[in-house]
What we know:
126 residues; alpha+beta; Immunoglobulin-like; four-stranded mixed beta sheet; 19% helix; elongated
Amino acid sequence: MTRIGESSVQLVLACFALLMWTSVALAHCFPDQTTPSAGSALGAAPPQVVVHFDNAFNPASSSIRVLNEKGDLVSGAGEPSSDHRAITVPLKLLAPGQYFVKWRAVSQDGDHTMGAYSFTVKGAPR
């Protein structure tokens, strides 16, 4: 094979690898908006938590749980949006304190992501 031919093959393989990596990276679901927002300090307890994702997820395999400082579950069952890009969970009566939102998302093609963030309630329970 000539030097030009080898360089062409290497260039094609590099482009293919880049395209494959990009398509894999785009398949994951990550939060792009949360309510309440990560790290926020609220004057009153929110009635719900909403996590909006950057890609559609599989609603049967994706979830959000909200826990108090003791690790007790303080959220109800999650309700996915019709476009499968957001999950809303209702909250129990929240006392002042720190709360942890744990999310797990499975994209439409099966890729798993998970993470957590916290918010603080400073005011009296709603």
